[in-house]
Amino acid sequence: MAGGGALSAEQKKDLMNRLARVEGQLRGVQKLIAMAETPSDCDAVAQQMSAARKALDRSFVQLLAGAIVTQTGNAENLDDAQARAAHLAAMLDKFA
């Protein structure tokens, strides 16, 4: 497989911003856990954990979608594009 970046600069910036938001959500979850005193507090923690997990899942989808666009777009020919797409499909199967 030929060279070429996995993601464009804009895709990287976008993904880094998403992950920074997830990181902030997780810090918020940690604070909620530290302050939890009643069962309803646990509901709030669970809700925020679910939101953070979904945001991380969306970041994963964005990573793969960006890689598909960039990697197949940078392919030298159809065989190279198919090989890159197969690699990304294998990643999706392995990690999703």
UniProtKB/TrEMBL annotation:
Family: Belongs to the FrmR/RcnR family.
Lineage, broadest ranks: Bacteria, Pseudomonadati, Pseudomonadota, Betaproteobacteria, Burkholderiales
Coiled-coil ranges (or none): none
Signal peptide span: none
Entries under Gene3D superfamilies matching the protein: Metal-sensitive repressor, helix protomer
Name this protein carries in UniProt: Metal-sensing transcriptional repressor
